[in-house]
Specification:
Elements lengths: L1 H17 L2 E13 L11 E8 L1 H51 L36 H8 L6 E2 L4 E8 L3 E2 L3 E11 L2 E15 L2 E7 L3 E7 L7 E4 L6 H7 L2 H28 L2 E13 L6 H15 L8 H18 L13 H17 L3 H13 L5 H26 L2
Helix pairs in contact: 6-7, 7-8, 8-9, 8-10, 9-10
């Protein structure tokens, strides 16, 4: 037993001597994200407007309701005229009938004739229709454009400017529908019915984007599916319908929803605008792998880390990233030199399996920022080819590849106009 314990201690001590600790350091930096659909480089300015398309529909609805009111008013006037004429005609007829009656009643033979009665028509009641439509609010479109719409990388101006138009459809909804559930419970030997009342309704606030550029025409003109889907909602629940109706103010609920959705959806559209057409400074946090060991030196990894961090911090300096790429490539070169020692199956090697994978991740990530997408792809595929790559590392490869594809698409689109 004692010999077995001594052997275990010896093995663990040997492993600790040769073990490498792979760890990461988070790096905060900014980079200039390129647009997916660059506007030609001669255009430096933009104008932004917000258009309430729903105002036209509001006007149509209000005019239609005004016509209904007008029709009811005309009907009431016509009914009153008919009523007055009927009063007059019936009164005249009654007067004549009474004259005839008074003449006839003096004759004993007519003693049983019925006395005429004055028949008056029912007076028409005036009905005033009530418009229960919730009309989307009229907003300050100039303020909305200034507050929410900004095309990164461009100046506001009229000369040779791209035109950004944000189209608002306004709040759209279904009328709240009364819902009821009943549960039967037994209490003190008696069955009691418990009820809950609430309203259910749906809503959405579609917003569109149109972008035009001199010499290029319309670059974008669409409403977004994400903003054109009805969202289901419920009110709070109450034990009686009267309590529910007293607490639930439809117009107040819709007004609050409208304000919230307007802000959220304008932010959404502005993000789409800049993803497609803007040059946006993105605050990024990336993890770069380092290695430490008690018996082996990894000073080269510290040098590579320093070069990579210097390059990352230079990314937002200019679009061409000349100095940044030079430093990023210097870091990559050090990691590639280290990989010449790679022995993925030898845990005692300086560049063992864990260090190899960590190094390949470093190269892939930094190569993406250096616009060397082929090298990044190759490094990620090498990780997948290693039998020692874990499921977690394979998932990370797919995440990095998604970022690679996005950055490559942006870079290739940008190169076409530059």
């Amino acid at each position: 037993m004692k010999k077995a314990l001594l052997l275990l201690v010896f093995v663990l001590s040997v492993l600790s001597v040769f073990s490498q600790n792979v760890f990461d350091r988070k790096v905060n930096f900014e980079y200039l994200r390129l647009p997916l659909q660059p506007i030609k480089k001669s255009i430096k300015n933009y104008q932004a407007v917000v258009v309430m398309e729903y105002e036209i529909e509001n006007k149509i609805r209000r005019e239609a309701f005004a016509k209904i009111v007008q029709d009811y008013e005309k009907k009431y006037v016509d009914d009153m005229a008919a009523y007055d004429k009927s009063i007059k005609d019936n009164g005249a007829k009654y007067a004549q009938d009474m004259i005839d009656y008074n003449k006839k009643i003096t004759d004993p033979k007519n003693a049983n004739i019925a006395k005429p009665e004055l028949v008056l028509p029912v007076k028409p009641e005036k009905y005033v229709p009530v418009d229960n439509t919730y009309y989307p609010k009229t907003i300050n479109t100039e303020s909305a454009a200034v507050t929410y719409i900004k095309l990164d990388g461009y100046e506001k101006g009229r000369d040779n400017a791209a035109m950004v138009t944000v189209l608002l459809k306004g709040l759209q909804y279904t009328e709240p529908e009364l819902k009821l559930t009943e549960k039967t419970k037994t209490k003190d030997g008696q069955q009691i019915v418990e009820r809950e009342y609430w309203f259910e309704y749906t809503y959405k606030y579609p917003v569109g984007l149109k972008v035009e550029a001199p010499g290029s025409g319309v670059l974008c003109n669409e409403y977004f599916d994400d903003l054109n889907k009805f969202i289901s909602a419920k009110s709070d629940k109450y034990k009686t319908e009267s309590e529910l109706r007293a607490a639930f103010n439809r117009d107040k609920v819709f007004s609050s929803l409208e304000d919230k959705l307007l802000a959220e959806n304008l932010n959404y559209v502005n993000n789409v605008l800049n993803s497609r057409f803007g040059y946006t400074r993105i605050k990024a946090v990336e993890e770069i792998n380092l290695v430490s060991s008690k018996k082996m030196s990894y000073s080269d990894y510290e040098l590579a880390f320093a070069s990579a961090v210097t390059g990352l911090n230079q990314l937002s300096a200019d679009l061409n990233k000349t100095q940044a790429i030079s430093n990023l490539n210097a870091g990559i070169a050090i990691w590639e030199k280290a990989l010449e020692e790679s022995q993925p199956q030898n845990k005692k090697a300086r560049i063992n399996g864990d260090v190899t994978i960590a190094t390949l991740f470093n190269i892939a990530l930094i190569a993406i920022y250096a616009n060397d997408f082929a090298k990044a792809e190759l490094s990620l595929n090498k990780i997948l080819a290693l039998s020692i790559a874990s499921k977690r590392e394979q998932r990370k490869v797919e995440q990095v590849k998604a970022f690679l594809r996005d950055q490559q698409m942006r870079y290739e689109a940008w190169k076409k106009v530059n």
